[in-house]
Automatic annotation (TrEMBL):
PANTHER family: GLYCOSYLTRANSFERASE, POLY-BETA-1,6-N-ACETYL-D-GLUCOSAMINE SYNTHASE
Protein name per the record: Glycosyltransferase family 2 protein
InterPro entries linked: Glyco_trans_2-like (IPR001173), Nucleotide-diphossugar_trans (IPR029044)
Residue span(s) of domain Glycosyltransferase 2-like: 4-159
One Pfam family from the record: Glycos_transf_2
Stored CDD domains: Glyco_tranf_GTA_type
SUPFAM superfamilies associated with the record: Nucleotide-diphospho-sugar transferases (SSF53448)
Signal peptide per UniProt: none
Organism of origin: Candidatus Scatousia excrementigallinarum
Length: 203
């Protein structure tokens, strides 16, 4: 398996179809990536919609949890991920380039990096999500046993902080916009935060 896509979901019935279809539309061998959907405390039809879209794809996985924490949901996905690479995608976001997978893997392999950083993305309004989990495409073996904390906010800052301090940390910036970020919804698992904790220059 080349890629594990981990998607934490909390009441995303109006968004999850767009997200999943953007992943399934990738110009990439469909049996070489798995989609891991984490149903976290959902009270709507998110799971039903997602299962319908992914029907027939035996490699995909559904996990039901009651964390109400995006970080802990991502951890649940990491525990079952089998891909060489891991990408945490928010369920209300979507990919805007059908060659996103190939672009990221190609960039990483060209320079033997362990992490790719999405420098540019599209959003409805200007935001500073420098440390958001979805901006990083990881080599899974490099993540190792590093996991997100149970913090309500800033868990992605902390996670990347641990990652960036590892001995073999090598990051490549990807200039081409591949990802559309939806401004955080009221009550979403992921909210706007101050991302100024670490000093790594990603701009």
């Amino acid at each position: 398996m080349d890629i594990s896509i981990i998607i934490p979901c909390y009441n995303l019935e109006h968004y999850i179809e767009r997200c999943l279809n953007s992943i399934l539309s990738q110009n990439y061998e469909s049996n070489l990536f798995e989609i891991i959907v984490i149903i976290d405390s959902c009270t709507d039809n998110t799971e039903k919609i997602a299962r319908g879209i992914l029907a027939g794809r035996s490699q995909d996985k559904f996990i039901t949890v009651g964390h109400n924490r995006a970080g802990l949901s991502r951890n649940s996905g990491l525990e079952v991920a089998t891909g060489k690479y891991v990408w945490f995608i928010d369920g209300d976001d979507y990919l805007i380039d059908v060659n996103a997978f190939s672009e990221l893997i190609g960039k990483m392999q060209n320079v033997s990096s362990t992490v790719a950083y999405l420098k540019n993305f599209v959003s409805e309004r200007p935001i500073s999500e420098n440390w958001a989990a979805w901006r990083f495409f990881y080599e899974r073996s490099f993540i190792g046993d590093t996991r997100f904390s149970d913090k309500v906010i800033d868990e992605d800052i902390e996670f990347f902080g641990f990652i960036s301090r590892k001995k073999d940390f090598r990051i490549i910036k990807v200039e081409k916009p591949l990802y559309h970020h939806t401004f955080p919804r009221e009550g979403s698992l992921v909210t706007e935060k101050n991302k100024s904790l670490f000093r790594l220059d990603l701009n």
